[in-house]
Write a structure and sequence with these properties.
One of its GO terms (biological process) is proteolysis. Its EC number is 3.4.13.22. It comes from Defluviicoccus vanus. It is an enzyme of class 3 (hydrolase). By secondary structure, this protein is an alpha+beta fold. The protein has a single domain, classed as Muramoyl-pentapeptide Carboxypeptidase, domain 2. The protein is built from four helices and seven strands, in the order E-H-E-E-H-E-H-E-H-E-E. It has a five-stranded mixed beta sheet, covered by helices on one side. Strands 1-3 form a two-stranded antiparallel sheet. Strand 6 and strand 7 form a beta hairpin. The model has no long low-confidence stretch (mean pLDDT about 95).
Length: about 180
Amino acid sequence: MPLVPITEATHGVDIDLVYASDRNFTGRTIYRHPRCYLHRDTEACLLRAVDFAARLGFRLRLLDAFRPAEAQWMLWNHLPDPTYIADPRRGSPHSMGAAVDLTLIDTTSGEEMDFGTGFDDMRCLSWHGAAGLSAAVERNRALLLGLMTNAGFDFYRNEWWHYQLFSPRGRYPVLTDSVLAEGMM
């Protein structure tokens, strides 16, 4: 299987899969089981990012990773807006295990860094380069962008939290929950 389990113990990250709760833009639980997976190529980039972040006194908190195609349809049916939700007919990098949504934790304070908006905030304020942000928020976004791109990730311009492998469509298949030994749905 091209997907590997990602855990706090094995990967040195915090995991808070928002879609395994009702704390997401749909207001309902999408994943019945909070399991985190990534394609092995994505995992390699993630491990580099974990190392870079740790050297600077930060820890990554994963908010989403592999998203079964069934879950992508649930998100799309709730909000069919390709500005923020990949059309499942086209395929989401998340459904390929090629994308991760995350934030940074300051290891000194234990606090999540301020990025100006929350995760899945569907406004232009969430975009990279958005105007009207404080200098501190812009620095935090630049720090995350630098860590992730240095680790080999591409970014999605409309979401400060979303990073993916370069050109995943056509390189990685869209996967359903059925490929997992222990499913999420």
